[in-house]
Amino acid sequence: MVHNILSYLNKLMSNGSAYLRPDTALRQSCPANRHTTTLNFKLLTFNRRPATGNWQLATILVVTTLLSAAAQDNKGLKDYYAGYFPMGVAVSPQVLKGPEAELIRKHFNSLTAENAMKMGPIHPEEGRYNWAPADAIVNFAQENGMRMRGHTLCWHNQTPDWLFVDKDGKTVSKEVLLQRLKAHITEVVTRYKGKIYAWDVVNEVIDDNDSKFYRDSKWYSICGEDFIAKAFQYAHEADPDALLFYNDYNTESPGKRDRIHQMVTALIDKGVPIHGIGLQGHWSIYEPSERELRFSIDKFAALGLKVQITELDVSVYPLEHSRREPRPDEPNKFTPEMEQKQITQYGMIFRVLRNYKDSVTGVTFWNVSDKHSWLDSFPVRDRKNYPLLFDQNLQPKKAYWKVVKF
Ligand code: GLA
Q1: Residue 370 has what pLDDT?
Q2: Active site residue 290
């Protein structure tokens, strides 16, 4: 688009038939620059060159301004962060068309499937896989030269019921469950081998409660902790080149951070193929503090692991991890106070992440814009949240400018 305008102008100007003259009569606002300048210009077409040479100068000035505005407008998040880390976003196949797809192409160079690769959606019955939604996302990434993260191979949520029971409805043995896990991981990882560079292999197995260690899930009650190492091993066998991550939330809470660290250290000591840690980054305008965030990155990077922020959003409410009903006094509005706190928090987060660019190898936002976020229905049903960098009309928020102007 910018190219077209410029080559058209060039053509007109080189044959002496057009000049740009600053003109207050026509106010045209240039979208990229709306935060700084309003350009006033008029394209004049002449049959012959005007007498005064000043117009030449005006032409150059306006074209230069136009050029730099247009160049800015063309830059997306991924371009501002080109020297730092890939910028990703979690998507459903539905957002890969129309204006959201355009926004994704402009700002992101990495994708994660929000739901399509989770065990329930992709493997609803034993031996039957639902590939179409996941394929659509992988194809979009390939067509647009984007990286693709796989999410997630083993989790306690969105897991199909058939997995844990036999045909009579009785709980399966550890051997059967591990064999099913292996079949699942082998099939899914092999299908996308060479197209998915990193997998969240195991998700959220550590308990939030400081008096416990592992989460009490069906995986854990049937297999004990062994399923964790096995999942990494199966994924590595299926694609030895893929980077394998453990992924969790609340990773800046000291107790949970220590437990994750302890588990991951034990995996590394046993020679389990684990290469990275996903800090989900479901944060809020109130937390984490800069100190805790730095501490988490330091602690995991010191193990020689790559660190990625895998599910970033900054809720405008205090963090809660259990579902509850709405309270009558709960606001649904994005207040100026929330906005200001969110700008500050996003500014802090990205300042820290830039500082750690040698350890942080990717940042992924969880959803595209405030038009839709999973936080609109979690933890409180029908409470609108505004956690992302683009607003409900897909326009960059002030927090976006804070993140890209550094
Ligand atoms: C967890 C999971 C994600 C997603 C979010 C909520 O963080 O890892 O896949 O389900 O919860 O959307």
Answers
A1: 98
A2: no
The closest of 223, 240, 241, 219 to 153, measured between CA atoms, is 219
Residues 112/91, Cβ–Cβ less than 8 Å = yes
Cβ of residue 249 lying under 6 Å from some atom of ligand 1: yes
| Cα 246 to middle of ligand 1, angstroms | 13
Distance CA 56, CA 47 (A): 16
Q: Hey, which of 256, 312, 366, 388 would you mutate to test ligand 1's pocket, going by the most ligand atoms within 8 Å of its Cβ?
A: 366
Asked whether the beta carbons of 6 and 67 are under 8 A apart, the reply is: yes
- The confidence score (pLDDT) of residue 183 equals 98
pLDDT digits (tens, 9 = 90+) for 267-290: 999 999 999 999 999 999 999 999
pLDDT digits 0-9 by tens, 346-392: 999 999 999 999 999 999 999 999 999 999 999 999 899 999 999 99
Is 204 in the active site?
yes
The two structure tokens encoding residue 76: 């997306």
Query: For position 57, what pLDDT does the model report?
Result: 55
Strands 42-45 and 18-21: antiparallel
Q: What is the DSSP letter of 345?
A: H
- Atom nearest to 115 CA in ligand 1: 9
Q: And the tokens for 337?
A: 């106070």
According to DSSP H, which parts of 110-242 are helical? 119-122, 132-143, 174-191, 218-223, 226-238
Query: pTM value?
Result: 0.85
- Which ligand 1 atom sits closest to the C-alpha of 366? 12
Give the integer Cα–Cα distance in Å for 134 and 199.
14
- DSSP code, position 91: E
Residues comprising the chain, all counted:
406
Phi and psi torsions of 125, nearest 5°: -135, 155
pLDDT tens string 232-267: 999 999 999 999 999 999 999 999 999 999 999 999
Ligand 1 centroid, distance to 91 Cα (angstroms)? 12
CA 249 to centroid of ligand 1, rounded, Å = 9
Which residue shows structure tokens 């297999």? 223
